[in-house]
Amino acid sequence: MKTDELKKVASQVRRDIVRMVHGVASGHPGGSLGCTDLLVSLYFQTMKLKTDGTDSVVFDMSGTGEDMFFLSNGHISPVLYSVLARRGYFPVSELATFRKLDSRLQGHPATAEHLPGIRIASGSLGQGLSAAAGAAYGKKIRNDSHRVYCLMGDGEQQEGQIWEAAAFIPHRKLDNLIAVIDFNGQQIDGPTDVVLNNRDLGVKYEAFGWKVLHMDGNDLDDVVTTLAKAHAAGGKGVPVCIIMKTEMGQGVDFMMHTHKWHGTAPNNEQLTAALAQLDETLGDY
Amino acid sequence: MKTYTFTEKKDTRSGFGAGMAELGRTNSDVVALCADLVASLKLDTFIKENPDRFIQCGIAEANMIGVAAGLTLSGLIPFATTFANFGSSRVYDQIRQAVAYSGKNVKICVSHAGLTLGEDGATHQILEDIGMMKSLPGMTVINPCDFNQTRAATIAIADYEGPVYLRFGRPVVPNFTPADQIFEIGKAIVLNEGPDVSIFATGHLVWQALEAGKLLAEQGIEAEIINIHTIKPLDKEAILQSVRKTGCAVTAEEHQMNGGLGDSVAQVLSLNYPAPLDMVAVNDSFGESGTPEQLMEKYGLTAASIVAKALAVIQRKK
C-alpha cells in the first residue's frame, strides 16, 4: 500500500480511537493515537498475514506461516482493535461495543472472548516481550521463517520482566523478533524522565545484545522504511529493537504535548473538535 | 486395613524427571524450560536426549512463564520448571494473565514444595501455592504422592489441553503406587475402605495417612483413606460418597490450612453434607530450617497428628 493510502487508513483509525473512548467515556486515546502509524504500517504494509487467497485476512491462533504482532502495552487497545477491524479481522461495527458488557473488545486485549487477531492477554505491563519471545522461539523450532513483532511502551520499560526478556532474546539468538518501543516520554503520573528515568534505552538494548534502530513513529515514510530495514536485519543472529519516537495524542492538537490524555476520554465538545481534525476516509463505524 | 508395601523410597521430583524422559521419547511437541535448576528438577535425561527441545531461561522466572505461554501458539507443550516458590508466588501475575486468563496450554511443574525442602528454610518453603493456583479460573492443580504417581501424572498432563500446576518435592518417600497405574486427572483414589472416618490426603501426606490407618486399625477403627492427588478439579463425588458413609473427615497436606486441600474439602462438605472435619496442615505460620523429618514433626504433619484428629472427629459425630 502506498503512503498516501496508509495515511487515509491512519486518519480513519484515529477517528475510530477517539470515537471508541468517547463512546464509553473511558480508555486510553493518547498512546493509541501515537502508535496509529506503526500499527497501520504493520497490518497494511509490512506484515505477511494469512489470507484466504485474496486480500481477506484469516485469523489463525497459531500464527503458523505468517508474521505475528504482540501488543505488550495493552492499554492502547483502541488502536489495535480499530486496525484489526479495518484490516478485516472482525466487523467494523463491533468497535461500538468497546469496553461494554458482553463485548469481545475488552478494556485490555484478551483471548477469552475469542476476538480474532488477539493471541494473548496483555494489560498487566511488562509481559508482552516474553510472550513474543516464546512465539519467536516456537517459529524457530517449527522452522517457520516469519517474523514476530512486539510493541511496548516506554513507561513499561520500568518493569523488571522486560529486562529478563531483553537478556533472553539475544542470548537465544531470536533474530526473527522485532521489538518496538513507543518512546513518547509520557506515563500516567507525568514525564517518564521525572517518574523513573529510563536513561538511554537505545544504549541499554545495545548493551543487552540487540541491534537498535531509531525512527519517527509519526512519519509514515520513515516507519515503513525502518520496518523494512528491521525485517532485512533479521536472520543474522541478532534481534532488532526500534526506538520509535512518537507524540502521545498525535493527530489531535489538544491531546499532544501532554500526558493528560493517557487515560482520559474526550467529552462531546472535545470529540467534535478532535473529529474536525481527522478526515473520515473509510466511513465511520 | 489394606497393606501397602514398597521396595524403595524415592523422591517425587525424580518421578517427574522419569516422566519427562519418557515424554521426550514419545511426544515431539513437549518442550522443557528451566530457570537454572535442571539438576534439582531431574531434567538431565530429557536435556541429554532432546537438547533442541530444552530452553534454559536463567534466573528469570517471569520471563520463563511468558516464553512458555508464547510457545503454546505453535502447538508446542511447554513444561516450565523451577522450585515451587518461584513457579507460583514469584510469578503469580504472569501465570494469571499470560497462562490462565489467556487459556494457554502451559504445564507449570515445580519441585521442593512445602516444608520438606528442609534446610534452606522458609524463604523457599512455599506453603501457599495450592491456594494461589486453585483460585485461578481454569487452572488444574495436582499434587501426587510418590515417584510412580508423579511420573504418571507428568505423562498424563501432556495429553490434557489446558494450564496445569504440578507440585512435587525433594525428599525420598515410600514409592507404593503401582508402576503401571494410569493417572486420571481429577479422579480420587480410594486406598482403603472403612466405615469410621474419612482421611483425605495429598502429596507426601498420603503415606502418613496410610501409616495413620494402621495405627487406627490397632484401636479397632477402620479409616477410609483417599488420595486426593488432584486438588482442582476436586473429586467432589468421591468426597461426598465417603463422608456420607463415615460421617466425619480429616484432611492432610503439606500446605497452609488457609487455601489448601482442607479448605476445598470443607467447602464441599459445608455446601453439601455438613460433617465434623479437622485438618492436618500448617496453621498460619512460615516454616524454618531443619531436616524434613524434624520439620514435619514440629509442624504436626505426621501420622500421629492424623490419628489424633481422626479420633477427635469420630468423637464429634456422637
As a whole number of angstroms, the C-alpha radius of gyration of chain A is 18 Å
CATH architecture of chain A: 3-Layer(aba) Sandwich
Structural class of chain B: alpha/beta
Question: In this structure, how is the largest beta sheet of chain A organized?
Answer: 5 strands, parallel
Distance between the termini of chain A: 22 Å
Figure out the total of helices of chain A.
10
| End-to-end separation of chain B | 23 Å
Task: Record keyword descriptors for this entry.
heterodimer; A: 285 residues; alpha/beta; Rossmann fold; five-stranded parallel sheet; two-stranded antiparallel sheet; 10 helices; globular; B: 318 residues; 2 domains; seven-stranded mixed sheet; five-stranded mixed sheet; 11 helices; 14 strands; 37% helix
Short description:
The complex is a heterodimer of chains A (285) and B (318). Chain A contains ten helices and seven strands. With 285 residues, chain A is α/β, with parallel strands linked by helices.
Could you characterize the architecture of this molecule?
The complex is a heterodimer of chains A (285) and B (318). Chain A has helices spanning 3-24, 29-34, 36-46, 77-87, 128-141, 160-171, 192-196, 201-208, 220-233, 268-275, and strands at residues 68-71, 148-153, 177-183, 186-187, 190-191, 211-216, 240-245. Chain A is of the alpha/beta class and 285 residues long. Chain A has a single domain (3-275), classed as Rossmann fold (3-Layer(aba) Sandwich). In chain A, helix 9 (220-233) links the parallel strand 6 and strand 7 (240-245). In chain A, helix 3 (36-46) packs parallel to helix 4 (77-87) and helix 5 packs parallel to helix 6. The two termini of chain A are 22 Å apart. By secondary structure, chain B is of the alpha/beta class. Chain B has 2 domains: 9-174, Rossmann fold (3-Layer(aba) Sandwich), CATH 3.40.50; 189-316, Rossmann fold (3-Layer(aba) Sandwich). Chain B is built from 11 helices and 14 strands. Chain B has helices spanning 12-26, 44-49, 61-71, 92-101, 129-134, 147-158, 205-218, 236-246, 261-272, 292-298, 303-316, and strands at residues 9-11, 30-34, 54-56, 77-83, 107-111, 140-142, 164-167, 172-174, 189-192, 197-201, 223-227, 230-232, 249-256, 277-282. In chain B, strand 4 (77-83), helix 4 and strand 5 (107-111) form a beta-alpha-beta unit. In chain B, helix 3 runs parallel beside helix 4, helix 7 crosses helix 11 (303-316) and helix 8 (236-246) crosses helix 9 (261-272). The longest helix of chain B has 15 residues, at 12-26. The radius of gyration of chain B is 19 Å and the shape is globular. The model of chain B has no long low-confidence stretch (mean pLDDT 98). Chain A binds chain B through residues 61-64, 68, 70, 110-112, 119-124, 126-139, 141-142, 144, 160-161, 164-165, 167-168, 171-172, and chain B through 31, 52-53, 55, 57-58, 60, 62-76, 78, 93-94, 96-98, 101-104.
